[in-house]
Design a protein that fits this description.
Elements: H1 2-16, E1 39-42, E2 47-52, E3 64-71, E4 75-83, E5 85-87, E6 96-108, E7 110-116, E8 122-127, E9 129-130, E10 139-144, E11 164-165, E12 169-170, E13 173-174, E14 182-184, E15 190-192, E16 216-219, E17 221-224, E18 229-232, E19 251-255, E20 258-263, H2 265-273, H3 283-289, E21 293-298, E22 307-310, E23 316-324, E24 332-340, E25 348-356, H4 358-366, E26 377-381, E27 386-391, H5 411-419, E28 422-431, E29 449-453, E30 458-459, H6 461-465, E31 481-486, E32 492-498, H7 500-508, E33 520-524, E34 533-540, E35 548-552, H8 553-557, E36 561-565, H9 574-580, E37 583-589
Antiparallel strand pairs: 1-37, 2-27, 3-4, 3-22, 4-21, 4-25, 5-24, 6-20, 6-23, 7-8, 9-22, 10-21, 11-12, 12-13, 14-15, 16-19, 17-18, 23-24, 26-36, 27-33, 28-32, 28-37, 29-30, 29-33, 31-32, 34-35
Length: 592
Amino acid sequence: MKKNLAVLFLVFSVVFISCDQDFNTIGADLVGDEHFDFDKYNVQNLKAYSVSTGEVQTNNLPINPLGFYNNPYFGETKANFVTQAALTAVQPNFGTNVKIENVTLYVPYFSTAGSTDSNGETAYVLDSIYGANKESKMKLSVYENGYFISNLDPSSNFEDEQRYYNNSTSNSGAIDFDGLKIGHDGNGMPQQDGTRLNDSSDPAENDQFFFNKEEIVVYNTKLNTTTGVLEYIDLNGDVIIPQSDVTSRVVKGRLAPGIFLTLNREYFKKRILEASSNNLFSNNDFRQYFKGLYFKMEQIAGEEGAMAMLNFNNANLNVNFSSINTGEVSATSKTFSIKLGVNGGGNTVSLQDFTPSSTYSTDLSANLNQTTGQNANLFVKGGKGAVVYMDLFGGDLLNADLVAGPNGVPDELDEIRKKGWLINDAYLEVYVDKPAMSGNSKAQEPERLYLFDATNQKPLVDYSFDASVSTNSKRSKVILGGIVERDASGKAVKYKIRITQHINNLINSPNFNLNKNVKLGLCVIENIGEVRNYFYKDPIDFLEGPNIKIFPVSSITAQQGVVLYGTNPTGLSPEDTEKKKLKLTIHYTKPN
């Protein structure tokens, strides 16, 4: 009776929902594991293997890592960052009697606001900060960038797009960003490899920097023109004495947690406020003159460091000064803002230096069997990492019972098509090799994996079918899945990805463009809403099929990795082997 009702519902769905498929799927939104009287089939001929990405394209990423991330299994990543800058207003008139007050740089973290106390202070929870100690100290240095980041490749006579890679290279050659950095000479003048620009006396802004979760409070100040020091002032504009009296300070504004630095004001007075009008005439002129900022991270003794994912497009570089404009009697305070990142129309480069562990390198080399795809382990890692590629029904073989000769379709898929199943649900399950990941903390396991069409380098049809949303955009498309499942201790257990529509097309669609058994890719993803593609520096060369040049950009921004059981796990009991091996499960109804 239940099977008849299921078929009746399917017919109803076909009539009212689908006009272009022989069979529509039902149960695609069944997130649980109850499938009533549906029959179940585990695909027998899965092929899956990991491939090292090598160097990857990292210019103009939507999100950029900064800092240090040590994964006990995979190795250590160090991430620096370079960005161009843009004027918010070209050909500015700064007025006369210009006196610079201070220069501030603010880059917000990803965070969620909590409760606010009686003093107006809000508590925040930071997101996308990784490491065993998220408040580990590091040395942060900010310099002017000394290398012009071009849109077009000069080696192709400026006809091709210029691509920059994580190892400080481009398709034009190697780039020494660090060797070309520009600081100041002590008097505010530019000097190659000079003193860093964030030279505040507060060590939290440079030598003892950390990703602080506290709200940033900005107080009212004014410049002492005699001493050149910013002083706190009260509600009447009078200098607070003593300056250490925090209770008398006046709150000017509050900011969510982020990088908040005061930069060398004399440097920006000379470089911006006293710049030739020709250098500020347009942003093209400005970028040739002021090539942007270089963020350099260094580890300090006894500290491992931490890594944050940052959206530098939301950064603010403010030059605060006073001057007299036409029609004014006395000087007034003003702010001139400079944009960073692609929101200002400029370019950025993420410099990611990954040093693999010997264990990871050895294990990866031992599990690269593309011929059979029967590997004990699979490895996925973001950044310069690893991607899993798989063929769902094995290779193209001849089965004399089905066809007169090779038809380019795997035997197993031919057999299933012959049976005419109605597909109710289909999902891929990958279990975490917990012993291999035993040295990791909860934060070091990816929150999500992403399965995509690697042959055509696009999302699977199930991605478009899933319109579910979440308050956390990274966890939208919950029906599609790929979100980590954890045990009571917080350790990752498995990832489950639903591909019902894709399997339905493979088995039942008469459209050749929909029923092709394409190669699939599995990778770490930072944001499920970002599925554009970027380039490998060297294309992946497969034993079967054409090479692949691109893969999802959001896997480059993510730095986490996880060891998964493959199609042929070792060291497990027969029961655990059957349970934890990579598998594709199809729930179906037989046609009457």
